[in-house]
Structure formats: C-alpha cells, structure tokens
Amino acid sequence: MEDNHFLSNIFTKELFKEEELNSIIPLFKKVKFHKDDYLLKEGKVENLYWFLEQGYARSYVTDSKGNDITTEFYSNGDVVIDWSSFFLRNPTREYIQALTDCDCWQLDFETFQKLFHSIEAFREQGRTRLVQSYFLSKNHRISIIADQAKERYLQLLKGRPHIIQNIPLKHIATFLGITNYSLSRIRREISK
C-alpha cells in the first residue's frame, strides 16, 4: 500500500472508526501532475475527487474575449474539484490546471458514491467540505461586487497568504477581478 500519512491526517481518527479508515484509505490512488498539466478540461464531466497533498493548482474559465479568469486556487489539503460537474454529472465550464508540480490522491466517482452512501463520517466530511467551498465562493462573488480592489487583495493576503507568496500575480489579478497594473499599484501602496 502507498504511503498514506497524508490521508490519515485528512480522515482523522476523531471522526472515523479504525475499520472505516481501513476501508477508505486504500481506495485512493496517488497521482502526480507536472506544472501546467490539466486535472480537468472544459467540456469534460468531472469524474475524480482529488485531495491535493502538495503543490498549487487553479481553476479558471475563458471569458468571451479569450482571457483566462481564475475562479479558485488550491493548495495543500484542499479538495480539487468542480463540485457541480462531479455531483450533477454535467460537462464543466472550467479548467483545473497545476501551477506547480502536484501530488494528489484521487477517488473515482463510483467509489466516492459507495463511500458517501455507506459511511456516515465520510458523508459528513464531504458535506462539510462542499458547504465550506460554497460559502468561500459566495463570499468571493459578493466581494467582487461590493468591495474595493484593495480590500479584496488585503482579504486574500490575510486569509490565504500562501497564495500571494506562491501564485503568479497575473492569476491573482484575474481572481480579484482587476488588471495586473491595478494589482501592482495596490501592492506598491501597501508596501509603503
């Protein structure tokens, strides 16, 4: 069996019984992605549930002018997924791309469904992650509308400083809904 220390930390003994852990963890497969590899491409149905052990990835859409607009960042411990495509079984409108070399643990849709319906702790942990993802996404959408660009940057800096430190600024700018120039200006203002 592959090294599963990471998964043992994800599926903690406080939430899961020992026999549940023994039935869940071996079902995951470790997969490596190189920088710029795609975990998912637009038009495909999301069939894999990923835990990101190490590295950085992003999801993005292409706007009507052909520009990449970042919709989310993923880092260590995150679930990397298009939730809507995964659960509703519809083609995604997003791309998910590795921004660095990444180590992931994958579980296919059918296996996920079996675990989801047979192990209560797995179901509850999955629901919790889904709800957290929903609220992060909703708060981000509201922030894009209601907050000044500088506030959005400061919120990201405070809440997820590792993103600012490890992600190219061009992706951070599109995530914040601003231009590269505006982001540079904001960073200069803050550094003074």
Mind explaining what this structure looks like?
With 192 residues, the chain is of the alpha+beta class. The chain has 9 helices and 8 strands. Helix content is 48%, strand content 21%. The strands form 2 sheets. A 4-stranded antiparallel sheet has the order 1-8-3-6. Helix 4 crosses helix 5. It is globular, with a radius of gyration of 18 Å. The mean pLDDT is 94.
In spatial order, strands of the major sheet run: 1-8-3-6
| Proportion of helical residues | 40-55%
Number of strands: 8
Mean pLDDT: 94
Number of helices: 9
Q: What portion of the residues fall into strands of 2 or more residues?
A: 15-25%
Quaternary structure state of the chains depicted:
single chain
The major beta sheet can be summarized as: 4 strands, antiparallel
Helix-strand topology string: HHEEEEEEHEEHHHHHH
Q: Label the overall shape.
A: globular
Cα gyration radius (Å): 18 Å
Backbone structural class: alpha+beta
Unreliable segments (pLDDT under 50, ≥5 consecutive)?
none
End-to-end CA span: 52 Å
Which secondary structure elements does this structure contain, and how are they paired or packed?
Blueprint: H1 5-10, H2 18-24, E1 29-33, E2 38-40, E3 48-54, E4 57-62, E5 68-74, E6 79-80, H3 83-88, E7 95-98, E8 102-108, H4 109-118, H5 120-146, H6 149-159, H7 161-166, H8 169-176, H9 180-191
Antiparallel strand pairs: 1-8, 2-7, 3-6, 3-8, 4-5, 4-7
Helix pairs in contact: 4-5
